[in-house]
């Protein structure tokens, strides 16, 4: 708990309530495996909280496929300066997330039920986060349209991070992405450090723009 106190600071009591809720309702509803309870802090809460090291102050974050709130809800706890939208398509998960937000009395969080592809028209945010959602090749297709030009996708990845980045190159090129890198955050706090793939949005691909324009004309006709 010494590391948890260092990472969460004054927000530690809120993080503790969230951990209790995960260990109880999260397990009961199948959002967290029973075997994960004993390692909730290191493997999940602290592992997600250190992603804050890569996020600028005061920005809007959309967390794709939030599930049990990892990492989006954790980031909202540890960084009250952030505005966080938890985007999740499954009803039972959004129900859990809404209950967690109410329990923790978080004012900087909104829960939205839906898919990233459907929500893209409503957002142009600074940062998109994702953990264990999909390979980067697919994740980029969902995340990049949510970002403003210069916005960043921060994807939490494991030991295949570099390989996934190379596999996603054709998709990233189609979106005009020129800036990508692998980051490690949480050194000295989690072992191994959390690996992020950072992708900076440039522009929507030409055929994607055309498809959106056609869709808008259809809806207005």
Can you describe what's shown?
The protein has about 220 residues and is an alpha/beta fold. About 45% of the residues lie in helices and about 20% in strands. It is built from ten helices and seven strands. It has helices at about 1-10, 10-30, 40-50, 70-80, 90-105, 115-120, 135-145, 160-165, 170-175, 205-220, and strands spanning about 60-65, 85-90, 110-115, 125-130, 145-155, 180-185, 195-200. A seven-stranded mixed β-sheet has the order 3-2-1-4-5-7-6, sandwiched between helices. Helix 7 links the parallel strand 4 and strand 5 (about 145-155). The relative contact order is 0.13. The model is unreliable at about 205-220 (pLDDT under 50).
Provide a brief overview of the structure.
The protein is 43% helix and 22% strand. The chain is built from ten helices and seven strands.
Secondary structure blueprint with pairings:
Blueprint (H helix, E strand, L loop, with lengths): L1 H7 L3 H17 L11 H10 L10 E5 L7 H7 L4 E6 L2 H14 L4 E5 L2 H4 L5 E7 L4 H8 L3 E11 L3 H7 L1 H6 L4 E7 L8 E7 L5 H15 L1
Parallel strand pairs: 1-2, 1-4, 2-3, 4-5
Antiparallel strand pairs: 5-7, 6-7
Helix pairs in contact: 1-3, 2-5, 3-4
Keywords summarizing the entry:
221 residues, 10 helices, seven-stranded mixed beta sheet, single chain, alpha/beta
- Return Rg in Å: 17 Å
Oligomer: single chain
Overall pLDDT score:
90
Report, as a whole number of angstroms, the end-to-end distance.
Answer: 59 Å
Largest sheet: 7 strands, mixed
**What's the total helix number?**
10
Spatial arrangement of strands, main beta sheet: 3-2-1-4-5-7-6
How many DSSP-defined strands? 7
Low-confidence stretches: 206-221
What is the ordering of alpha helices and beta strands?
HHHEHEHEHEHEHHEEH
Q: What is the structural class?
A: alpha/beta
Tell me the helix content. 40-55%
Classify the beta-strand content into a percent band: 15-25%
Name the overall outline: globular
